[in-house]
């Protein structure tokens, strides 16, 4: 009699016979022995099937299993340090539940456009499996931080009558004949709630009609937004600092192996400690204009060009190998390596082509404009910890940010830039608590007053200094996993031109 179990619990069953329910990940067989690597949603396990009288009834089937065939497989658990997951199964029974035919995602490399169209199947690939598990932990860590520190969860609406973050990225929907918008933020609503519960947060999907395709922008993303009554800018920055340390620690402690498998260097994450760096916007501009920014990008140029030359030589050599290799597998291996080298080369060439432009953008940065993606990258790469950039010019920031009383051209805000060039993952501020100033900002931004009357009420009845921030889950995950592009960080990415599956 064999017990049903899952791969993550095989350690409890060493020496016993168990049944696994899973899918065929990979197979390999010679005349006398077959190896089936099974995945069951909790891990991978190699099942060994030797040809003998016990395995006779299913040996033939085992040698012809196609990728992603669903099966039940029974066997005796053996601990083996060298095996994936640390255990192997000496197989004594096998039943096919569903034979998969021509699974489209094979072990050979596929282009990203193809994989995105196969997102519903791509989930099963090892890399995607790991990324979404880390996302799960990140989301849990976010919730725990706020729940454990006295914040009350306030769910905010997705249908909104007004803009929260500028009118250029609104998605309009028809609400019984009236135009309303998908929420860009829950902030205005948690501001009201913090005056009732003191410390609150919302956590949900937010929508922005981002009309450009970048590696940092989705049209639908998840954001957590804490809001605190009786808090000043420094208090809010302090919370952001503790919060980031807490979630980084949690992800590191639960996913070391996953991160390493994703190719993530752990050292920069291990270095995340308080205090983070702080710069004012003015200081950031000075850095962009200074020699360090230029030197950094010029060094990139040299280094990337050298790598391109290396790749060109490699491709030539591999092409020769492919031509002369005797064995078919050697030719196939060479073809795969050529493809990988070509992809890396194309990517580097694109980056190299952009560097002179980025040097120029930084050198000619005008006081009063918003930091661009490449500017943020420079500033974050010049620091080995997250950087808070504070006190932006009010023109480039949202109407609700508190005017700096010592310099009314600026607002009391901060963006937190993640290290290693990942750029902004948090945006936050103190909120304007003064009725007259807030109304003036609403008017300056050309917003209609009427939909904000309820928001103005918060400044009519018991207004206090308060503030908060928003952290984007996907950008944070891209940073933690060191992913170049945000599209792999969410189960079903939504970007301009991308809505399927
Ligand atoms: O800086 P943002 O626009 O700030 C707000 O929405 C404020 N209401 C937050 C607050 O103070 N309560 O966005 C906050 C974060 C960004 O730092 C980024 O991580 C993420 O949300 N974000 C995006 N992530 C993916 N795709 C996009 N298009 C994003 N826009 C913002
Ligand atoms: Mg922002």
Please describe what this structure looks like:
The structure is a single chain. The chain is built from 14 helices and 17 strands. With 501 residues, the chain is of the alpha+beta class. Helices cover 39% and strands 22% of the residues. 33% of the residues are buried. It is globular and about 90 Å long. The chain has an eight-stranded mixed β-sheet. It has three domains: 3-98, OB fold (Dihydrolipoamide Acetyltransferase, E2P) (Beta Barrel), CATH 2.40.50; 118-276 and 385-489, 2-Layer Sandwich (BirA Bifunctional Protein, domain 2), CATH 3.30.930; 293-362.
CATH topology of the largest domain: BirA Bifunctional Protein, domain 2
Provide the structure class. Answer: alpha+beta
Q: State mean pLDDT (0 to 100 scale).
A: 95
Q: Point out poorly predicted stretches.
A: none
Report the principal-axis shape. Answer: globular
Q: Please name the fourth-level CATH homologous superfamily of the largest domain.
A: Bira Bifunctional Protein, Domain 2
User: What percent of the residues sit in helical stretches (DSSP H or I)?
Assistant: 25-40%
Q: Beta fraction of the residues?
A: 15-25%
């Amino acid at each position: 009699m064999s017990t049903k179990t899952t791969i993550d619990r095989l350690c409890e069953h060493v020496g016993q016979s168990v049944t696994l329910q899973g899918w065929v990940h990979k197979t390999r067989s010679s005349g006398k022995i077959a190896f089936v690597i099974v995945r069951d949603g909790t891990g991978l396990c190699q099942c060994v099937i030797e040809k003998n009288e016990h395995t006779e009834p299913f040996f033939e089937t085992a040698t012809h299993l196609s990728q992603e065939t669903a099966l039940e497989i029974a066997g005796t658990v053996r601990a083996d340090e060298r095996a994936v997951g640390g255990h192997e199964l000496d197989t004594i029974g096998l039943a096919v539940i569903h034979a998969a035919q021509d699974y489209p995602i094979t072990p050979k490399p596929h282009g990203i456009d193809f994989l995105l169209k196969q997102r519903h199947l791509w989930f099963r690939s090892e890399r995607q499996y790991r990324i979404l598990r880390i996302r799960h932990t990140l989301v849990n860590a976010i919730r725990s931080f706020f729940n454990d520190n006295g914040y009350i969860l306030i769910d905010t609406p997705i249908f909104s009558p007004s803009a929260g973050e500028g009118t250029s990225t609104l998605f309009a929907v028809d609400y019984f004949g009236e135009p309303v918008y998908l929420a860009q933020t829950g902030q205005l609503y948690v501001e009201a709630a913090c005056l009732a519960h003191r410390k609150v947060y919302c956590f949900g999907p937010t929508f922005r009609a981002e009309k450009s395709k970048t590696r940092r922008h989705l049209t639908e993303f998840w954001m957590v937004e804490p809001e605190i009554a009786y808090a000043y800018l420094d208090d809010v920055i302090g919370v952001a600092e503790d919060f980031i340390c807490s979630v980084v620690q949690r992800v590191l402690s639960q996913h070391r192996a996953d991160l390493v498998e994703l190719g993530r260097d752990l050292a920069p994450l291990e270095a995340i400690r308080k205090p983070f760096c702080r710069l004012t916007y003015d200081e950031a501009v000075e850095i962009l204009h200074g020699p360090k920014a230029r030197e950094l990008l010029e060094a990139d140029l040299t280094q990337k060009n050298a790598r391109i030359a290396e790749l060109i030589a490699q491709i030539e050599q591999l092409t020769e190998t492919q031509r002369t290799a005797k064995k078919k597998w050697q030719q196939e291996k060479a073809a795969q390596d050529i493809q990988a080298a070509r992809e890396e080369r194309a990517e580097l060439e694109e980056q190299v082509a952009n560097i002179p432009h980025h040097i120029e953008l930084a050198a000619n940065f005008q006081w009063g404009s918003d930091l661009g993606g490449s500017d943020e990258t420079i500033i974050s790469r010049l620091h080995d910890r997250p950087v808070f950039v504070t006190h932006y010019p009010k023109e480039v920031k949202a109407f609700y940010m508190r005017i700096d009383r010592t310099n009314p051209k600026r607002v009391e805000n901060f963006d937190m830039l993640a290290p290693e060039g990942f750029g902004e993952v948090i945006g936050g501020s103190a909120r304007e608590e003064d009725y007259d100033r807030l109304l003036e900002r609403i008017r300056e931004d050309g917003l209609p007053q009427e939909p904000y009357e309820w928001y103005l009420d918060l400044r009519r009845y018991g207004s206090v200094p308060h503030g908060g921030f928003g952290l984007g889950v996907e950008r944070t995950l891209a940073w933690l996993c060191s992913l170049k592009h945000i599209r792999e960080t969410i189960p079903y990415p939504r970007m301009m031109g991308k809505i399927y599956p």
